[in-house]
Design a protein that fits this description.
By secondary structure, the chain is an alpha/beta fold. It contains 18 helices and 21 strands. The chain has two domains: 311 residues, TIM Barrel (Alpha-Beta Barrel), CATH 3.20.20.480; 30 residues, no CATH class. The strands form seven sheets. A five-stranded parallel β-sheet has the order 6-19-18-14-12. Strand 7 and strand 8 form a beta hairpin. The model has no long low-confidence stretch (mean pLDDT 95).
Length: 467
């Protein structure tokens, strides 16, 4: 979307913002690191020179490997691959049995974990549900335990505050078998973000610094509301977001040179008719794609979003917005692409929507593979055998190759009469059946008992300390 010259222009404008406007840093250690590095610090406002950013970019890893829970390489951030997964922390969930929207529960985190573990085109996990049936101060610890036990794929994780982040790293260390093992083969990415406009909060920077200390990859990606927390124009939001994120890269590299950090970000423009955030507006995708391209121009791994909808249910709007966003971001250079399955502008999670998103991703990936032009697929020998007026249905080449034609599992191809005879089910019903089947039958790889026990002990300790 952007030329090399345009990417460089955006980068230079972000450098200008950091030098002339500055960022507010609400974390004492981060302020000290920046001051010692020669940045101008006025109370909590910090002004960075271009060389601070350029040195940090040279230090930050261009390639970040992420492993699964069992230590196998699963994601290669900084490569040419896109990886898709759901989002996190929806206060509401569409009940799989009633179809009604209700408050999220811890059982929903388990169900989303099982579903993602089984779906082939979901590459990583996020919680999707913010459980309302556990103590609020400990909800993230419950999420972490539930996700780790019920899913072996890597995940991106959000935590409530600095205290809980430290507890989560203790849990992760127990699962990995030690702190060194966790650093060598991290199985999750710690999510954190600046507060727009241009503020690094105490908790956000605490998560970033602790991640650097442990050597665990962390995002520092803006989540803006253009027109409210960032400029209304896509270009203005991209410049501001990049400035915020680059300040985080500088801080992480001052804490520990070579600490893995991921930028990119996402935007939900303010709908001036409703005063709500909109995931589905074209401006959101323009901002997401531009941030991805500029981040890759700087040789940084990218976190972005797709597969969401502002719709409240599975309908034509959901299918349209999810399909367009997945298609566009699959064509981008983003590495981790989250929020597959979001409804209601990121307020509601839906198991059926994740299943449909998985189907869309599979469809797009097959298109990206293109046409196989090897001798077998060019089928010259088959053309010779069959000849003019012949039939390919009975030729051996058809049996050998027809399975290579990708067949979406959920999409209906029957005649009308056959469709009616089989129940006349629409896409939502078929997705619901698929989700029910997976949750009822899928068995994730078991986590060693000692790891589960260690997490439970940390959780019980936290409960006791918080009363």
């Amino acid at each position: 979307m952007l030329s090399e010259q345009e990417k460089n222009k955006v980068f230079n404008k972000a450098l200008y913002v950091l030098e002339k406007v500055g960022v507010e840093i609400r974390h004492d250690e981060a302020l000290n690191l920046l001051g010692e590095a020669g940045a101008r610090v006025e109370d909590s406002r910090v002004y960075l020179k271009p060389y601070h950013v350029e040195e940090a970019l040279r230090s930050a890893p261009k390639y970040v490997p992420i492993y699964d829970r069992d230590g196998e390489l699963a994601l290669e951030l900084g490569s040419a691959e896109n990886y898709f997964g759901p989002g996190s922390d929806n206060p509401s969930t569409v009940d799989l049995e009633t179809g009604e929207r209700r408050q999220s529960k811890l059982s929903d985190v388990k169900n989303f974990s099982l579903l993602v573990d089984a779906l082939p085109n979901m590459d990583f996990l996020m919680s999707m549900a913010l459980p309302q049936d556990v103590p609020t101060r400990l909800a993230d610890l419950y999420q972490f335990r539930t996700m780790t036990v019920n899913n072996s794929k890597p995940f991106v994780f959000t935590s409530a505050d600095n205290r809980n982040t430290a507890e989560l790293f203790e849990m992760a260390t127990a699962v990995a078998g030690g702190r060194k093992e966790l650093e060598e083969k991290p199985f999750f990415v710690q999510y954190t973000e600046p507060t727009s406009p241009l503020v690094g909060s105490k908790d956000a920077l605490g998560r970033l610094l602790l991640s650097a200390e442990y050597g665990v990859p962390a995002t520092y990606t803006s989540g803006t509301l253009p027109g409210a927390s960032s400029p209304a124009t896509p270009a203005g939001t991209v410049v501001m977001s990049l400035a915020e994120e680059l300040s985080g890269v500088v801080i992480s590299q001052l804490k520990r040179p070579g600490a893995p950090v991921i930028i990119g970000g996402a935007a939900s423009p303010m709908d001036m008719k409703t005063a709500g955030a909109s995931y589905g507006l074209p401006a959101a995708l323009l901002i997401d794609k531009a941030l991805s391209e500029v981040s890759k121009y700087l040789d940084m791994p990218v976190f972005s979003e797709a597969g969401f909808s502002d719709s409240k249910l599975i309908d034509g709007q959901q299918a349209m917005e999810a399909s367009i966003s997945i298609t566009e971001m699959a064509r981008s250079e983003a590495d981790l692409i989250h929020d597959v399955g979001y409804l209601e502008s990121g307020q509601t999670g839906s198991l059926e929507s994740v299943v449909i998103g998985n189907e869309i991703v599979g469809y797009i990936r097959r298109l990206q593979e293109g046409i196989n032009l090897d001798e077998n697929h060019l089928a010259i020998d088959a053309l010779k055998r069959v000849g003019p007026g012949g039939r390919f249905l009975t030729d051996e080449s058809t049996l050998d190759t027809y399975k290579s034609l990708y067949q979406p599992e959920l999409l209906d191809r029957k005649s009308y009469d056959s469709w009616k005879e089989s129940g006349g089910k629409d896409l939502r019903e078929r997705a619901r059946e698929k989700a029910r089947k997976v949750i009822g039958e899928h068995e994730p790889e078991p986590l060693p008992d000692e790891a589960v026990q260690a997490m439970d002990e940390i959780l019980e300790k936290s409960k006791a300390e918080l009363g």
